[in-house]
Amino acid sequence: MFLDYFALGLLIFVALVIFYGIIVIHDIPYEIAKEREHPHQDAIHYAGWVSLFTLHALWPFLWIWATLWRKERGWGFKRLEEEQHDIHHRVSALMDQVSQLQHEVSKLKQQSHTTTDSTANVENSEENK
User: According to the UniProt entry, where is the signal peptide (predicted)?
Assistant: First the structure.
């Protein structure tokens, strides 16, 4: 008799834990959206409830939707374009600096060769005297 009541209590407890677990799992995208201050967090929350009744068919899409937004960069696409544009300009500036340095190095090499040649000519002329 006691075991019957114990089994019934255990069955009810397990059913409640599973029910609560499903509700907590379906709410994960909403919690992510709330933490990131997503502009569509209410829509994600409502879609999560709809997903609960459709056996979580929408849940992976809600997860993606919630994680795409970040407060500091928004959706990220515009910022990414700006960062790529900035990187392109920095690379262009670095390429210009490298070409300028190469030009200066070649100029210094020529000066070095002419200095070495003139020094050698002076030494040869002194030896010939």
Answer: none
